[in-house]
Design a protein that fits this description.
The protein has 16 helices and no strands. The chain has helices at 3-11, 15-24, 47-54, 57-66, 80-86, 90-99, 105-111, 114-123, 137-143, 147-155, 164-170, 174-182, 198-204, 212-220, 235-248, 258-267.
Length: 268
């Protein structure tokens, strides 16, 4: 079986070669690997997950047409449609939805599909706190800056105890963060494993170029700028380290505005 060749072809977006391989060896559609960003992690990723990571709608189309399992999940409970939404692969998301992939409550939350979200909650109110994907629906809504689905989830009993504010922090989403904070989310909630708060997450600027407005917001609601992670780092230390790294080796695309975050944290 040409498993390695199959995943390599997916990784480089070679739809024609993937088509040839799965036609010759249909069992390749059931093969699993680690994610392309960390292949040593055996999370049971299918070729469809790999196509999402590669950002290749053409390969995804080939795999869907060949009959790959749309609902296959990783060990973290994530299906390819979850990853396509999180990674902003809108064309693949449309393809999977049209092919019949189920949009569960987490998909509804991050996409802002309020009516679909309500349908799921009407069927099973406990889904407001579903953790099948490793992240609550409220966390998905926070990551997608979906204020209406966030409000609906909170009204339906969603707990705010799983780092949902840090999800908003990682992408600098102020609007949904305000919804969480006004509903009572603790601005100093820390991840039990890492000790990371939303302020630490905002200071890292992992998925956004500027989180200064987010920092202002959580400080307004009482976030503690002196709080340290389990590794002993404050948000200011994280932002300063990021600023130094950015100056030493600028990232591709828009530069990250560590300077504004550093300025606010020094002032706090």
């Amino acid at each position: 079986m040409r498993r390695s060749e199959y995943f390599e072809a997916i990784g480089r977006g070679d739809a024609e070669r993937v088509r040839e391989l799965v036609a010759e060896e249909p069992e390749l559609l059931r093969e699993l690997t680690g994610p392309s960003y960390a292949p040593e992690q055996q999370l049971r990723c299918t070729g469809l997950h790999a196509a999402v990571y590669a950002g290749s709608p053409d390969v995804a189309r080939v795999l869907v047409d060949a009959g790959i399992d749309l609902e296959a999940a990783t060990l973290e409970g994530r299906r390819a449609v979850h990853d396509s939404i999180e990674f902003g692969q809108a064309a693949i998301t449309r393809l999977l939805e049209e092919a019949g992939a189920e949009l569960d409550i987490c998909c509804a939350a991050i996409l802002g599909r309020l009516e679909l979200l309500r349908e799921w909650l009407d069927k099973d109110p406990a889904l407001a706190n579903d953790r099948t994907t490793g992240l609550s629906p409220l966390g998905w809504a926070a990551f997608g800056n979906q204020t209406e689905t966030a409000r609906e989830l909170i009204a339906r009993g969603a707990r705010m105890d799983d780092g949902e504010l840090s999800c908003a922090a990682s992408v600098g989403h102020v609007e949904v963060a305000r919804v969480l904070l006004e509903a009572g989310f603790d601005p100093n909630y820390a991840c039990p494993e890492s000790g990371t708060t939303a302020l630490h997450a905002a200071a890292a600027l992992h998925y956004t170029c500027d989180s200064a407005a987010f920092v202002d917001l959580v400080l307004e609601f009482g976030a503690d700028p002196s709080a340290k992670t389990s590794a002993g780092r404050t948000a200011l230390a994280i932002a300063e380290a990021g600023q130094r790294a950015e100056l030493a080796a600028p990232t591709e695309g828009a530069p990250k505005n560590f300077a504004a975050v550093v300025e606010r944290l020094r002032r706090a």
